[in-house]
C-alpha cells in the first residue's frame, strides 16, 4: 500500500484510504464492524479465536462457533477491500497459528494512538510550558467524543472508553492549569467550552470555564452557566456544587455591578425573569439567609411562619438506593413547588430532603398543607418503593436564640 490508512474511533468509527472512506453509518452489520474495531484497537497483538469470539459474542452459544467466526472474518475482509482501487486486494486481517491479527505491514494512523502519544509527551515536565500547552491542545483536539459510541454495549469498549475519557479529562485540566499560569484566558475559555460538551459533569472543568469567563470579563455568560450547572448536578446527581465553585460564583457576582444611580434599573435586576407559578426555589445558602431575615421580622411583627421538612426513605425507613434518589427528588421537588404558593420558599437540604418556609397563621393549617402535598406526591410518583416523612415547626424570633445562650 502506498498510502496510510486513517482510522477514527473517537465520536464514531471510520476507516479511510486515500479518498475512499468506510463508515459505520452505511450498510454494514454491527458484528463486521465490531470485528474490525476490535482488531484495530488491539493492533500489534495476536488475538486467539477464543478471545475474539468472547469479545464479539460473550455468552451467546452457536452450533458452529468457529465457522461463524470464519464467515465473519471473510465478510470483513471483503468489505475492507472496498477501500482499494479496482483489481487491487490487501490482506487486512491475517490468520497465523490459530490467532487473528491486523496486518502490521499496512501503514495505519489511528486517532487513539496519536492521542495517547501526545498525552504522554505533554506530561514531560522537562519541556517548556508553551510546548506542553501545544501538545495538550493537539491531544484534546483529537478527542472528538466517546470511544466507539455505537459499540458501547460491548464490555471491552466500555473499559477502553473509560480509559480514554480519564486521559482526556486529565489533559484538559492540565491544559487549563497551564493556560491560567500563562494568563491565556481566551484560550482557556475556548478549551473549556469544548471540553464540557464531552465531560458535562466534570465540575473541575466547569469551574475552570467560570474562571475563564471571569478573567475575560464575560459575567453574562458566567452567571447563567453556573445556574445551569447547579441545576444539572442537582437533577442528575442529587448533589450540590462544591464550596470552591460556589465561592467563585459569589466572586463573579460581586464584580459584575458597576456604580448604578437609577433605582429602577436596580429594581429590574432584582426581579424574577418570569412570572413563575408555585413556590420560590433557591440554594440552601439563600434559604438560610431568608430564614434569618424572617426570624428578625417575626420579632417585630409577631406574624407566624413555619418551617417544614420533607424526607423520603425506602419502605424500611432506610436511605433509598442511590440510583433512584435523583428521580424521586425531582418528582418531590416538582410536587412541593407546584402545590405551594408564590410566597413560600423551598430548598434542598440533602439528597433526600427538602426544607420549606410557610407563612401561615395556624400550626394545623401547616399540617394540612404537608398532608396534601404528600398525597399529591404519592399519586404522581410511579412506584411504591419510597415513603414520605414530614415535620413542622414554627420559626422562632431572632431574640429567642440569644435568650437560650
Automatic annotation (TrEMBL):
This is BTAD domain-containing putative transcriptional regulator. The keyword DNA-binding applies. Residues 1-104 form the OmpR/PhoB-type domain. InterPro entries: AfsR-DnrI-RedD_regulator, BTAD, OmpR/PhoB-type_DNA-bd, Sig_transdc_resp-reg_C-effctor, TPR-like_helical_dom_sf, WH-like_DNA-bd_sf. It holds the Pfam family BTAD. Keywords: DNA-binding. It comes from Solibaculum intestinale. Signal peptide: none annotated. Belongs to the AfsR/DnrI/RedD regulatory family. Residues 1-104 bind DNA.
